[in-house]
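Why should sequence recovery work at all? Because a backbone constrains its sequence more than one might expect. Tight turns favour small or flexible residues, buried strands favour hydrophobic ones, and helices have their own preferences. The token representation captures these environments compactly. In the example below, the structure is given first.
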């Protein structure tokens, strides 16, 4: 039985912030394998008469390392084994027994693995991101990894994100990594979006905790382990919703939230009684205004956008049956007298302005979603538009 998808509602949210490893790309396993090789070799070399407990790909990785910046991960794991070594410096050689040295060694192993295995994506996540962007949501990649850009490039998906806040960006700005919320907050700031209108999508407990600490509107936990206790842990850290895969999530269309019985079915799929236009086309606007004109036998109004002025794009006009005037006009040097419909006062004058900007005009803004539907049976013309103002 097909399960009903959860919808990211555009009435409530404007942006979706995606973690990389384990959410968008299948590189969480690559990281986990690199960490295992590093720590197992290190623990074995360190020696202990009773042997050593190997790094556990599930428990140790998830609890101490997953989602955190590189050196934070080393620090947390070795502390769990009661090992105390100096922090060192980011320039430490990979064989130096410092936190940074170990982290640098892990990066060598990770890079080798990446070269060998390449980068695979979660197709369902890519589909969701494309759907979100099509429906006007902004998207960001927010990752602790300094390899983030390289991974995005290898998968050829850099273009799917409006901004990237990763390990490199975070270091250059002096931000604190997950589980602190700084990098998510930076992404929201760059997208010019309020945190409560942002959705965070994370597979790591540290990432979910960061989302919660940052006060984000919705946190979706992705449980790649398929284990019930991990779902429970993600919830406990602050996930509002836990899924096994993002095929369980769908991007809402703004039109969906218009619950008016008369218009919503047509806005959704159209019917033989509807004429649908998608996208704003200034060149075609005059023709559309004519084809979408609505009247009742007494008067008629062209289907111009509310607030539209008579200019090179729009020609708002309302006419009365029998409302003609005889007029003399000079055409090509000749005076021609004819009868014309008189333009009676335009009643489509609803307009608005964003503080500090001129009155709203379609041609001045970046449009994400534009849908104009004429229902000929009901005589209703609906226009839905989602746009970005000049402040962005
Ligand atoms: C996170 C991964 O995205 O990045 C962790 O979940 C990884 O497993 C961390 O350790 C740091 O990555 P990098 O590439 O900077 O060592
Ligand atoms: Mg992750």
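From this structural description, the recovered sequence reads:
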């Amino acid at each position: 039985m097909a399960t009903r998808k959860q919808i990211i509602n555009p009435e409530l949210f404007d942006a979706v912030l995606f973690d990389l490893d384990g959410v968008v790309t299948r590189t969480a396993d690559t990281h986990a394998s690199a960490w295992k090789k590093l720590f197992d070799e290190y623990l074995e070399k360190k020696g202990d008469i009773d042997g050593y407990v190997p790094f556990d790909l599930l428990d140790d990785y998830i609890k101490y390392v997953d989602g955190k910046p590189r050196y934070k991960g080393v620090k947390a794991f070795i502390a769990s084994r009661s090992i105390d070594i100096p922090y060192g410096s980011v320039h430490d050689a990979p064989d130096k027994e410092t936190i940074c040295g170990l982290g640098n060694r892990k990066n060598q192993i990770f890079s080798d693995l990446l070269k060998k295995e390449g980068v695979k994506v979660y197709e369902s996540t890519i589909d969701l991101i494309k759907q979100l962007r099509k429906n006007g949501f902004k998207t960001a990649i927010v990752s602790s990894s300094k390899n983030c850009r390289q991974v995005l490039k290898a998968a050829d998906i850099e273009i799917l994100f409006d901004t990237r806040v990763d390990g490199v960006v975070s270091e250059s700005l002096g931000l604190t990594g997950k589980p602190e919320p700084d990098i998510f907050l930076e992404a929201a700031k760059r997208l010019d979006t309020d945190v409560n209108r942002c959705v965070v999508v994370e597979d790591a407990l540290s990432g979910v905790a960061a989302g919660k600490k940052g006060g984000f509107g919705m946190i979706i936990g992705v449980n790649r382990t398929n284990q019930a206790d991990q779902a429970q842990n993600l919830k406990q850290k602050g996930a509002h919703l836990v899924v096994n895969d993002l095929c369980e999530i769908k991007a809402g269309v703004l039109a969906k939230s218009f619950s008016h019985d008369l218009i919503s079915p047509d806005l959704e799929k159209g019917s033989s009684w509807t004429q649908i236009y998608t996208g704003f086309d200034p060149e075609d606007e005059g023709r559309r205004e004519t084809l979408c004109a609505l009247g009742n036998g007494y008067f008629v109004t062209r289907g111009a956008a509310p607030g539209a002025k008579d200019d090179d794009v729009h020609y708002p006009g309302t006419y009365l049956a029998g409302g003609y005037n005889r007029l003399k006009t000079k055409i090509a040097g000749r005076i021609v007298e004819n009868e014309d419909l008189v333009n009676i006062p335009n009643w489509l004058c609803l307009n608005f302005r964003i503080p500090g900007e001129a009155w709203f005009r379609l041609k001045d803004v970046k449009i994400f979603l534009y849908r104009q539907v004429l229902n000929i049976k009901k005589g209703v013309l609906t226009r839905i538009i989602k746009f970005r103002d000049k402040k962005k």
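A few observations help interpret the result. The chain has three domains: 6-23+121-251, 28-117, 273-370+384-388.
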